Amino acid sequence: MATSERRTEKVSIPSVGATLVGTAYWPAGEPKSSILINCAISVHQAFYVRFAEWVAEQGHLCLTYDYRDFGASSKVHPRQSEATISDWGVFDQQAALEALLQLADTPKVHVIGHSMGAFMMPLHQNLRKVDQVTAVACGHAYWRDHHLPYIFAVLAYWYLLGPVATRMKGYLPGKSMGLGADFPAGVYWQLRKWCTSPTFFKCDLGDTLPLMLEEPFTGPLRIMSLTDDDVAPTASVDRFASCFKGAQITRQLLHPADYGIGAVGHMSAFCKRNAALWPEILGASELKNAAA
C-alpha cells in the first residue's frame, strides 16, 4: 500500500487460539522490502518503536506486534493466562509472518528476531517464505554456559527467586524483579525447563513442540552477538546455529566500542542511544536498496 507520507497502522493478527495486536510502519512510497520484528521475551512491541520508525525511513515496511496475553495483545491479567512460550514462539511468530506477507507484496522479506524472537525459528514451518533472517542476541542458553559472576543471577532466576515468585503470584512478576514486564507462568515454566536442560527445547520436540525440519531455512542467516552480552554466551549461540544446517550462516560478534557506544548487553541493541548498530542489524543489502 504505497503512500506519499510515512504512517503507522494498527494490525489485527489472527493466531491459533488468539488474536494479536500489531503495528505496521509504512514508508513513503512503495516499500522496498517487508521486515518483521519478533520481540524478546520480556519487552513489549513499543520497545522497538524508534527502530521500526527508522526502518520505515529507510524505505521499508516494518511490522511489530505483541505475543498473546502480553502488551497490547493482553486481554487478561497474566495470572489468568494459559499461554506458554510454545504459543508465543511457534504459533504467534508464524502468524505474524503471515500477517506481514498479507500487508504487501515486496521484493524481499526479512525477519529480525531479538533473543527469544529468534531462538524458536528452527521450528517455523513458514520460514521458507523469508529471504533473510537476522538473529540478535540469541542463544539456546543452558545455565552452565554462564560465567561468574552472572551465573549467580541465573541460578537465582531458575532455582530460587523465579520459582518462588511465580508460585506465589501465579505469574512471573517481571516488573518487580527488574525484568521489564510481567508474563504468564506457563511461559516462565517452559523456558525454565529448556534453560535447565543441556538440549534446550529439544526435550519437548514431538510433545509440546512440533518436530524440527531438517532444513527449516536455507537462505542467508545472520547471527549477531554482543561482546558484553552475559545472557547469550558463545556456547548458547553455537547451539542455536547448529539447528540451521542448510542456512547460509554469517556470525558477527559486535564490539560496542567499535561503534562509538557504551554498554549494550542483551537488551539494548534496539534502543535509540545505540542507533549506531541499526545499519548493521538492518543489513547492507536493505540499505543499498533504500538508497537506490
UniProtKB/TrEMBL annotation:
| Molecular function per GO | hydrolase activity
* Protein species of origin: Pseudovibrio axinellae
Q: Superkingdom, according to UniProt?
A: Bacteria
Q: Which residues form the AB hydrolase-1 domain?
A: 47-121
Q: Does the keyword Zinc apply?
A: no
Q: What is this protein called?
A: Alpha/beta hydrolase family protein
The record's section on Gene3D superfamilies has: alpha/beta hydrolase
Its keywords, alphabetically, are:
Hydrolase
